[in-house]
Structure formats: C-alpha cells, structure tokens
Amino acid sequence: MKSYSPEQIYLKSPTWVQNVLVSIYGYLEHQRRYTGEHEALKLQLKNNEYKRTEELELIKKRKLDQIISTAINKVPYYQKLNIQKLELSEFPLLDRQTVADNTEDFVNRSYKESELIALYTGGSTGNPLKVYVSKAIRQRSYAFWSAFYARMGFEIGDKKASFVGRKLQRPDDDTPPFWRYNLKDRQLLFSSYHMSEQNLPHYLEKLNKFKPRVIEGYPLSIYRLAEYILRNNSKLEFKPTGISTSSENFTNAQRCTMETAFQCKVFDQYGSAESVVFASECVHGKMHIEPEYGIVEILTSEGSIHSEGTGELVVTTLLNDAMPLIRYRIGDLGQLAYEDCDCGRNTAILKNLDGKVGAVIVNGDKRVPTAAIAIAFEYLEGIKNAQIIQNQPSSAIVKLVKKSDFNPETEDYMLWQLRGMLGEGLEISVEYVNEIPPEKNGKYRMVVQNHFIY
Ligand SMILES: [Zn+2]
Predict the structure, then answer these.
(1) Quick one: pLDDT at residue 125?
(2) How far is the centre of ligand 1, averaged over its atoms, from the C-alpha of 339 (Å)?
(3) How many whole angstroms from 341 Cα to the centroid of ligand 1?
(4) Which of 162, 315, 319, 373 could join 277 via S-S bond, C-beta 3.0 to 4.6 A?
(5) Helix (H) or strand (E) holding 296
(6) CATH architecture of structural domain 360-449
(7) What local confidence, expressed as pLDDT, does residue 454 receive?
(8) Is 170:143 a contact under the CB 8 Å cutoff?
C-alpha cells in the first residue's frame, strides 16, 4: 500500500514549493517515459503507420508468436496449462479475478524482481489489480501515446493542459490557483476536484493565458468547463489542435459540447494499465486499434470468439512480456470491424465502445468525475470490489466487499484518499456487503446515483 506522507508534505507546502515539487516529479516522469526505447519505437510506429493490412498482419503474427512462446516457457500460470500448439486459439479465456488471485504466477521468470514495476489499476471497475511491467515496456507504451499525439499535431515540448486525478490542492481550499505547472513538459495540470461554478472562471482565465496546444484528461472534467464556456458565451483566446480524452465513457452530446466550446476535435483514447490494448481516434473519428500493441477479439454472448463482430472485448498483449495476459476479458463491450478509413490507416477499428461508465460525484457545487475518484480504490489490497452510492447531494455510501486478507487500515486509507479528493463537506459512510452485482448488461458501475439529477 502506498504511504501517505509525500502527499501530506506536498499539501502542506506553499504553492510555489508545490510547483517545484510538481516540476521535479514531472522531470522524473519525463525521464521514465521518453528516454531509452521510446524514441526508436516511436519512429518505427510512424514508419508502420500506413502499412497495408497484410503487412500489419505479419508484424502482429511475429509478435504474437513471441508472446506465446514466452508465456509457455517462462510464465508459471501458462506452463501449468500444458498447451501443446503455439496458437492463440489454444488458450482459454482469462478473467480479471483469476489474474488478481494469482498475480505472481503471471510474471515472466526471465525478469529479475528488481526489473519489475508494479502498476495498480481497476479503481473504476471496483476490482483492484496489480500489473507488472518493466522500465522498457513503459517507455515502449509511451511511444504509442507519443505517436497518437503526433497525429493530433502535438510533439513533446508543446504546451498541454491536463485535467487529471492529481491532488494538487486541498479539496476544501477554494482559493485559486487550482493548477500547478510542470516545467519540463510545459504542462499545466488542472485540479479535477475544484470544478465549481464559482471556480470555473479562474480555470478559463488561466487557460486563455496559457494557450495550450492540446487539452487532455478526463472527458467529464473537460466537458464541465466546455459546458460553462458555451452557457456563458465566454471567449476562448486560443485554438487547440485537439482534445485527448480517456478513462471513461461520454455521450455524443458531451463530445459536441467540447468540440464547439474549444473549436477542435475530440480524440478519444482507449487502453488500460494492464498494457494489453491501445486504440485512439483519428481525425475522421474512427478508433484505430494499434496492431503492434495488442490483439483484440470478440467474445459473443453465445460464448464463441471471433476476429470481428459485436460482444465482449478479449485482448492479448503484444507489448507486455513481463506479465503477458492472453485472451484476457478486459470487461468492456464493443464492436470490432475491418473497414477503410479516410485517414489511410489499415488497422482494425473499434466501434460502439462501451467502456468504463462515466459519471460524476456531486460534492456541493462541485462535480468530480468517476475516473478521478477511482484512484482512491487502486491500492486497496484487501478489497475485492468497491462501489459508491449517492442518494443525495450531501452524502455518499461506499460499499466494500472484503477479501480474506482484509485489514482495517485499508478502510482508513480509502477514506483518507476520498477526503483528500472530496474534502469534509460530503458525508461518507462505509458499508460491508457480500457482493456487488453488475448492471443488466454485465458491466460494473463504480458510482450509482439515485433520485436526483446532476
Ligand atoms: Zn482513421
């Protein structure tokens, strides 16, 4: 579990010290992401961007053979399965709970413990999961991001404004600035936890001064500001080349509001910390699945697996050989199609993606997106599932399903995290339950709001 202290030191510091700390962290993060293997892979991706379908299939096949051979020879979980033929079709479906319960068994034994980096994910699915990658895998993963941003007209070093789940300021402190600056990447980070009607004019004023090339982050945070801009007929004094969104679903109406307010296109991205899939929208609005990152298949409601069609997404990583997940049920629904796109790319296309359910927590006058809350649930090792129920604007109930290794400190830690995001104004209580059922469509909802409109 993560320790509390660096965050506490940060939150107690004056703003200028916080900017220095954000910049130091930003510098370290820059080194972690954009050095080593990053540049070479980015060039390779650019080179392969417009390859023909047959050429891409060959590249995929080569990478898949490598991953399968690694899994069978180096990964205890797959070794035990006794798979004879080196083919994807030989592998059984893998669900999240199996990975959560046997995490160490999925680690490639060629990696030394010191080479592995643990990533925590699953806040928004309510089912926390630990995934291992290596330094090089992370650099390669960011090469896909950089290639995506390059298609949006952005290069590293251009200015960007980020609406993210970082606790930049105490939640009850309503004095601007609600942003901090990361010098190395010329990135202005905006708090997703302070977006009230009274604070939004400050956000807009700062954006107008900063004039970012790209706006990125949680769609419902960006939408909140976009809606404010249109409703107030506010003037935008810059024109970004794109808005990059990820982490949660949003409606076409919300997309339209963002595109109208900021006078640019929204480029949604789909991926996950499991490092199994990466897809991003092109300028023509089609979501291209990166063939060199992972393979997506469709599991139909009848239980058969296909390379096209509609159903549950089943993914196989081509990137993360430190913890290769094969035919992994990522928990999202969608449609997979092979069709031409005017952008000239020949990848598989993901349509009607029904990913993480986007919603907002109402916190007084503030609206905090689910994705920004999900972080509170990421490090909860003794918790199987979590869900927030909000029946009225002044309070929320957190439902938790315990695992056998549950420790009471976990509850304290989670509440401390939530208070750090939502402040003291919202009354939060905890309820332990035996299970949290999914929605009718089988999807899990992290925030359930009843009886009031937000
Ligand atoms: Zn396209």
Answers:
(1) 63
(2) 10
(3) 5
(4) 315
(5) strand 294-299
(6) 2-Layer Sandwich (3.30)
(7) 45
(8) no
